[in-house]
Amino acid sequence: xxxxxxxxxQLRHPAGPTLRETPLRKFWFDEVPPRTxxxxxRRHRQERLAGAFRLFARYGFDQGLAGHITARDxxxxxxxWVNPLGKHFSRIRVSDLxxxxxxxxxxxxxxxxxxxxxxxxAAIHEAHPEVISAxxxxxxxxxxxSTLGRHLAPITQDSCSFYQDHELFDxxxxxxxxxxxxxxxxxALGSSKAAILKNHGILTVGPSVEAAAWWxxxxxxxxxxxxxxxxxxxxxxxxxxxxALTHEQIGRPGSxxxxxxxxxxxxxxxxxxxxx
Length: 276
Hints:
By secondary structure, the protein is of the alpha+beta class. 40% of the residues lie in helices and 12% in strands. The protein is built from 8 helices and 8 strands. The protein has helices at residues 8-12, 38-58, 115-127, 140-146, 179-189, 209-232, 240-250, 253-270, and strands spanning 68-72, 80-82, 98-100, 106-108, 133-137, 166-169, 194-197, 201-206. A hairpin with a 5-residue loop joins β3 (98-100) and β4. α3 (115-127) crosses α5 (179-189).
């Protein structure tokens, strides 16, 4: 057994870091305590939703009027919170969010609501009660990859988050303004965390706002990576067994939640008005 090291900084500075009496082995985060009231859960979802828009703006996922992220309301599960049409992602605050019911009517907030957001997200939330949040924008690399009409391949550790866990929706019929197309997207999604919408872009869902938002960031990154790799040559695939194992190791909601939280903390420090 190795001896507890003496830090050289302590030799120079007696008031330096204090070593633990018993070293601690800890490779993961503490469990997040559940919110104990509906109001607390609603506020949490609203804050992370507003923050997700700010983060998406930083990543360049803010093409014109396109793009929406939703969060199911914890008290009225057939209602969801969404961004108002025309409000730039970088300026969205909690107080800007709209609460929309299953008929597309605004219950809380000042509209308008993006018609495509309602058509897509209402169908997903209705068909998949386990989904708390869904994210879709016209991000550059997701949009570029969608034109190929293919699934992503397991070519990197990160892309294995989506190995056998994303679908291809290849029935593009123009701007999604009709709930029937939203239902086809919801059906194509199945139990997967993501979908590539051919000639349109990418979409992710999750059991929390944090998971859906982080998986969107990660999926766009995976699209970017494969586009670069295929432009340079022929990527070497990770074997099925290893890709499946890696998916189990890094593709879980908890990993996505804490990945998002690491971004959220920095965002909150620099843009505290997101909570207004």
